[in-house]
Each structure stands twice: as C-alpha cells, then as structure tokens.
From TrEMBL:
It is found in: Cell membrane. This is Iron ABC transporter. Keywords: Cell membrane, Membrane, Transmembrane, Transmembrane helix, Transport. It is a multi-pass membrane protein. GO terms for cellular component: ATP-binding cassette (ABC) transporter complex. PANTHER family: ABC-TRANSPORTER METAL-BINDING PROTEIN, METAL TRANSPORT SYSTEM MEMBRANE PROTEIN CT_070-RELATED. Pfam families: ABC-3. It comes from Paenibacillus swuensis. The chain crosses the membrane at residues 6-26, 31-50, 56-74, 86-106, 141-160, 172-196, 202-221, 228-247, 253-272. Gene3D superfamilies: ABC transporter involved in vitamin B12 uptake, BtuC.
Length: 300
C-alpha cells in the first residue's frame, strides 16, 4: 500500500507540474518554480517568529505569501526592462539571502528543521497523514497536491483560450480585450501554490524537475498546446512510475530517480523527435547535401 501511495503522490505532482510547465516553457519562465522554492525561506522563518509554532500549515501559509511576492517582484522587474532570467535570479537570491540572515539572527537556539520544510522526502508520504474528527483520511501530500491539481484543472479548463493566447501572443491578447496581467498573475499564483504545496512532502528537486523536464520533452514532440499538455502529463506520470521502481532496484533516492527517468525521456525526444530530433535533422541535412552535390555534378 505504501508503494502505491508514493507512486500516486509522484503522479499527482507530475500531473500538476506538467500542466503548468507547458505554459512556463512557452513563456520562457521555466525556472520560476526553482526561484519560488528558494525564495520562500524568509516566509517560513517569519511565520515561525510570529506564531512561535513549527506547525507545517502555518509555515506553508508564510511560504505561500512570499511565493506570491516572488512572482510579483519578478514581473515588476521585467516590466522595468530587466530580462526575465535576470529578474528571476535577482529575486530568488535576494529573498533566499534574507531568509538565511533571519535564520542566523533569530533561530540560533531553536531546532527549526528547514530541511524538512523545504526539501521533504517522498519516502515519508504514507506516514504523514491527516486526521479529521479522529479519523485518518490519508496522506497529507495526496490531499494538498490533489487540491492544487484540482485548482489547476479548474482554472485552465475555464480559461484555456485566454491562457493560450496570452502565452503565444500577449499583444494580440491585449488587442482582443483579454486582461493579460490578470491571467499572468493567475498562472503564477497557481505555480506558487503548487510549488509550495508539493515541495514540503516530495522535495524541491522533484517539483522543479517535473515543472521543466516533461514540458520540455513535450515541446520537442508537438506544436499543439493541447497535445503538449497531454504528453507532458504522460511523460511525468511515466517518469514517476518508472523512477520509483528504478529507485527500488538501485536502493537510491526516489525523487532523484524519477527526475532522472524524465531526463532520459527528454534525451530520447531530443534525439528522435520527428521534427526537432537531432538524428533526423542531421539525416535531412546529409540528404540535402547529397542532393545538392548531385545537382551540381549534373550541371557541370
């Protein structure tokens, strides 16, 4: 049963991140998830200092608030003329540094387990459960990630056309009367909530990896957004399943193996993609050169 719960959690994370990752790839903001996972540290510390409690829910509230602040600051810097990658780098390093300073100043004598809060371990998912009215209703990770996935499917389903146009052509979306900024912040809010909801239980490596790698794989295999989302989710779920059994066979990190399998699938797509694959592109180039040389020979 614990095996199934771990695989289910990995599949839920992969599905949630796979959907959002497609829009992040198209917007060239793939590292926003990584930025959020580091930048939330001051929110965790401030929540602890205010509440005096190490309850994970309170810390996650603080992390979510700073995650949204991170998104706002990144967008503000971009609107000021700073390039996207530079904005992400500046915001997450600055906020992470503030968190480190707060830890060193105010929590020296306190056992504040930041590794647990920031870089959870998916192995412990079956034992970290929620009790409601004295009844154990299941692992906390499945509920939190499941709710995040539900919100993603709900909002993307309701506003799919708006998200699609805003991702491909923001200028056209604005001309059509679509509030581009609103949908940008809605998407970034979903990324923030999903990242914060996931990384406490499954680890930042798995969250960031699933946000980027499956979507990048799907990007190589199709030019249609709907197909890209489906392929991204499929690659993520397959990576979760195969990665778990690879970790079991190798006695290695489950999250690490899941992301490694996703990396292998990306490499396969990079080499063998019908349109963007390296092998087929090189074959077409060689065939073109042969035809050009043959045409030149006939002309002579």
């Amino acid at each position: 049963m614990s095996d199934f719960l771990i695989i289910l959690t990995g599949a839920l994370v992969a599905s949630a991140c796979g959907i959002l990752g497609c829009f992040l790839i198209l917007r060239r903001m793939a590292l926003v998830g990584d930025a959020i996972s580091h930048a939330v540290l001051p929110g965790i510390v401030i929540a602890f200092l205010i509440s005096g409690s190490r309850d994970s829910f309170i810390m996650l509230l603080g992390a979510s608030a700073v995650g949204l602040l991170t998104v706002y600051l990144i967008q503000m810097f971009e609107n000021s003329g700073v390039q996207s990658d530079a904005s992400i780098g500046v915001v997450f390093t600055a906020l992470f540094s503030v968190g480190v300073v707060l830890v060193s100043l105010y929590t020296r004598q306190i056992d504040l387990d930041l590794d647990c809060v920031l870089y959870g371990e998916i192995n412990y998912v079956p034992w970290n459960t929620i009790t409601l009215g004295g009844v154990d209703i299941g692992p906390k990770a499945i509920w939190t990630v499941g709710i995040a996935l539900f919100l993603i499917v709900l909002f993307i389903g309701l506003f799919y056309k708006q998200f699609k146009i805003c991702s491909f052509d923001p200028a056209m979306a604005a001309a059509c009367g679509i509030p581009v900024a609103l949908f940008h912040y809605l998407l970034m809010s979903l990324v923030s909530v999903t990242t914060v909801a996931s990384f406490e239980s499954v680890g930042a490596i798995l969250v960031v990896g699933m946000l980027i790698v499956p979507a990048a794989t799907a990007y190589l295999l199709t030019d249609r957004l709907s197909a890209m989302i489906g392929i991204s989710v499929g690659v993520g779920v397959l990576s979760a399943v195969l990665g778990y059994y690879a970790a079991y066979a190798l006695d290695a990190s489950i999250a690490g193996c899941m992301v490694s399998v996703a990396g292998v699938l990306f490499l396969a797509a990079l080499l063998g993609s019908p349109k963007h694959g390296v092998l087929l592109r090189n074959a077409r180039r060689r065939r073109y050169l042969r035809e050009a040389n043959a045409a030149e020979g006939r002309a002579v």
